[in-house]
Specification:
Elements lengths: L26 H18 E7 L10 E6 L4 H16 L4 E5 L5 H9 L3 E3 L7 E2 L3 E3 L9 E5 L3 H4 L5 E3 L10 E9 L2 E4 L6 H8 L28 E3 L5 H12 L3 E4 L17 H12 L6 E10 L6 E7 L7 H8 L3 H17 L8 H13 L9 H18 L3 H20 L13 H49 L11 H35 L7 H40 L1 H32 L21 H4 L19 H4 L18 H4 L51 H35 L17 H10 L1
Parallel strand pairs: 1-14, 2-12, 2-13, 3-4, 3-12
Antiparallel strand pairs: 5-11, 6-7, 7-10, 8-9, 8-11, 9-10, 13-14
Helix pairs in contact: 1-2, 6-7, 7-8, 7-9, 8-9, 10-11, 10-12, 12-16, 13-14, 13-15, 14-15, 15-16
């Protein structure tokens, strides 16, 4: 992309002054910084695999939406690095204003990041206390004791309650200031904690409702709670700067969930991403803006030497219909529909499960569904996880799946009890002499590798200890300040890298200084010739000590894999334990058959030509070939009648079946939690008041289901899509929407029939686009290349 900087709102037509650069990007600084940081990425991650990077447009404006945001600042670094290396594009990412300080602030300026202010970051304690004088009849009226709202509060600003009981305090927008001791908020406070803080009443149920409705006011004698106030933040310049960058053909990236988290599902998306796209096209309809979804998929993201897959979905354009709605005072509906499209496209490149236990079961099922024992390429592992997760979401109430989940969960418990991994269960089929030989062979390798590990481990131990301690302390702090994090693991990797970057040079300087002093004192016991200058010792130290550390990391990585394999081998040698391993192996084989049978049974129920879409060879099929590559077939079509794998949704639902440049469906039955979360009274007439990042994060107990319908795997309309059926006009509106949906479904079926006929003409039962990749998003070329590399 071009290196044009982001600029603020343009000057008036009569002003001769040119627009000033607001967030400039220097190409050489950008490339130099990413090259330097790539060394750290390669050290921390064992593998970062880009998938589908060929889909990224090489020219023109692109808006990258990345999720889930599971690794704080590391996500941004990996995304920028991958785009620069694989797609030759430079991208400006949006970053919270509070993070633009210290090293992170300096680094963000090198890569042209756009700082965005958030109300919660500028909130300050205000004088006095507040309470609800009439929580039942007038819940939006706030009254203060010893306050001065006219001096400290702003209309459009925010009011924050304090955190308590391990929960983040609630927050609301200020609608009107009535006086120094009274103000009105845009919406009532919700939740048990907030009402208790503002009323001190005990008659509050778990849903945050007052049970004694005939009792007015707060608890007698209650003087209120402390609070914070944040000023109104005008985002107009930030939005205009983004518009100008995209109109000039540049790239902008955003993590639309608002903040990092360690959940197993996507959070509701914020309206900022939709405003950025619609606002750009409203000013420049012919700029050719495309949106590219990016899935940030990690395997133990917070652990050292973990793995990651950065998956790029097919780019899509914003339908002109939504741009017209945005320009014609229908911004709320346009933003809601575009958020639905973005959410659906992100679901096609991410693995989303309702909780951690379900994720563990799905990953176990994926391993059991690979009875050949062949190592699958990393992108195929991610795709298989996603398809199994989507299939589980559809059939989770099926008695067969419930029983199978219980069996797989019990199998996982047995693995944890024996402290072994699933792939190590296969040791039980080896003969006793083979096991003994393998055990001592690996033990010998471990001893030899220790010679290269121990020196670096001892020298670098202070850094390991410091990174682990500080990162976990930061995780606890982040967890206490967030309502969406579960364990705060999303900040661990970032702080491990930051601490290492700061502490490692200090440690190397210390070791080099000691060595130079010893050389100066006695030439290191006579081992260093007199002609060697002291400055050369410093240079040698800065080569020697990092080399020792790097060797320890690489040898240690192999050594840890060997060390983990010794325990199951030892259990196989011991007579009593070997029996348990043998039983577990038999149990695994039975479970593998059950999982394969369940997938083979339920798969055709979802997709008629299920057999053409296997990612993994079916070892239990009669007369099957053993060539896994022959079993890997591409997706046929993105429709409810076409398969996408053993357990997956239609790609038309996720948006991935759309050809390049096409948009995901606009059907309101795809309404997501993101668009439903938009406040009903928000028209977005002034985008300067619309925050780009989260200001009121959802509760930790937020449910993935909704009575509004249109959820994952649902073909129903959301209730909010209908008008009230209490009048003739209401019935007419509902009838019109139903007829529109029927026409849309008929058109969809017609297109599906044409695709099936075309696939029969092709003779292989599959259709693919002109780039050589299936509509399921899995590249046959990528798969074959990875398979051959193994």
């Amino acid at each position: 992309m071009s290196g044009e900087p982001l600029v603020p709102a343009r000057q008036g037509a009569t002003s001769p002054s040119p627009a000033k650069e607001l967030y400039p990007m220097s190409k050489w600084k950008y490339d130099t910084f990413l090259w330097t940081m790539s060394v750290l990425v390669d050290l921390f991650f064992r593998e970062v695999h880009p998938r589908g990077s060929w889909k990224v447009p090489r020219h023109g404006p692109v808006l990258f939406v990345a999720a889930p945001h599971a690794n704080q600042f590391v996500d941004a670094l990996i995304l920028q690095r991958t785009l620069r290396m694989e797609a030759k594009r430079r991208v400006s990412l949006l970053i919270a204003q509070k993070s633009v300080h210290g090293f992170i602030g300096w680094a963000s300026r090198q890569v042209g990041s756009v700082p965005v202010g958030r109300a919660q970051d500028s909130a300050k304690p205000a004088q006095g206390t507040i309470y609800l004088p009439d929580p039942i009849n007038d819940p939006t009226l706030i009254r203060g004791i010893g306050t001065d709202f006219k001096k400290e509060a702003d209309v459009g600003g925010m009011l924050f309650l304090p955190s308590a009981e391990g929960q983040t305090g609630a927050s609301v927008d200020i609608a009107k200031i009535l006086g120094p001791n009274e103000l009105r908020i845009k919406r009532p406070f919700r939740g048990k904690l907030a009402l208790r803080q503002l009323t001190a009443r005990d008659d509050i149920d778990d849903n945050g409702n007052l049970t004694s409705v005939d009792v007015d006011g707060s608890k007698p004698g209650y003087e209120g709670t402390k609070y914070k106030l944040a000023p109104h933040i005008d985002q107009s310049k930030v939005y205009q700067a983004v518009f100008d960058r995209l109109k000039s053909g540049g790239c902008v990236g955003i993590f639309p969930e608002g903040g990092s988290h360690d959940r197993t599902e996507l959070l509701p998306l914020k309206a900022g991403v939709a405003i950025m796209a619609l606002g750009t096209l409203a000013e420049a309809p012919d700029c050719g803006l495309r949106i590219v979804p990016v899935g940030m998929n990690y395997f133990h993201a917070h652990k050292f030497r973990s793995r990651a897959v950065v998956e790029f979905g097919p780019p899509f354009e914003v339908p002109p219909k939504l741009v017209d709605m945005y320009k014609n005072n229908q911004r709320r509906d346009a933003i809601g529909q575009l958020l639905d499209m973005v959410h659906s496209s992100l679901h096609a490149v991410t693995v989303s499960t309702p909780d951690y236990d379900t994720l563990m079961v799905i990953q176990a099922a994926r391993r059991l569904y690979n009875p050949t024992g062949k190592k699958l390429p990393l992108p195929v592992v991610v795709e298989l996880n996603r398809r199994l997760a989507l299939g589980y979401e559809k059939y989770k109430n099926d008695p067969r799946i419930i029983k199978l989940k219980e069996s797989v969960t019990e199998y996982n418990k047995q693995l944890r009890y024996l402290n072994i991994r699933d792939h190590q269960v296969e040791y039980a089929k080896m003969s006793w002499f083979t096991v003994v030989f393998t055990f001592f062979y690996r033990l010998t390798k471990l001893v030899l590798l220790s010679a290269g590990v121990i020196p670096g481990l001892v020298l670098f131990a202070p850094v390991f200890i410091a990174t682990k301690y500080i990162s976990h302390q930061k995780a606890k702090t982040a967890l206490a300040a967030s309502s969406v994090k579960i364990q705060g693991k999303d900040v661990i990797a970032t702080w491990k890298l930051l601490v290492s970057m700061a502490f490692a040079p200090i440690l190397y300087n210390f070791y080099t200084g000691i060595t130079a002093y010893k050389v100066y004192q006695d030439r290191l016991g006579g081992r260093v010739p007199e002609w060697v200058p002291i400055w050369a010792v410093f240079l040698a130290g800065w080569v020697f000590f990092p080399a020792i550390t790097f060797a320890a990391l690489r040898f240690g990585e192999v050594g840890m894999d060997i060390l983990k394999s010794l325990r199951p081998l030892a259990l196989c040698i011991h007579p009593s334990s070997s029996y348990s391993i043998s039983q577990l192996r038999e149990r695994r084989a039975e479970l593998a058959r059950q999982v394969t049978d369940a997938i083979n049974t339920l798969g055709p129920e979802m997709f008629p030509d299920f057999e053409h879409t296997r990612l993994v060879f079916d070892a239990y099929a009669r007369g099957a070939t053993t060539d896994a590559s022959n079993a890997f077939l591409n997706n046929a079509a993105g429709s409810p009648t076409s398969p996408t794998g053993p357990t997956t949704h239609s790609r038309s639902h996720s948006g991935e079946s759309s050809p390049r440049g096409a948009s995901p469906t606009l059907s309101r039955r795809n309404t997501t939690q993101s668009s439903r979360a938009i406040p009903r009274n928000e028209s977005f007439s002034n985008i300067g008041q619309a925050p780009l990042f989260a200001t009121r994060p959802p509760s930790r107990s937020r449910s993935r289901s909704s009575s509004a319908g249109g959820g994952l795997g649902s073909a129903g309309f959301p209730i909010s899509g209908f008008t009230r059926l209490d009048s003739k006009e209401g019935f007419a509106a509902a009838n019109r929407k139903i007829r529109e949906a029927m026409r849309e479904r008929g058109e969809l079926r017609r297109r599906q029939s044409e695709k099936r006929r075309q696939s029969l003409v092709d003779g292989d039962g599959m259709t693919s686009d002109d780039e050589g990749e299936s509509l399921s998003g899995v590249s046959m070329g990528d798969y074959e290349e990875a398979r051959k590399a193994q």
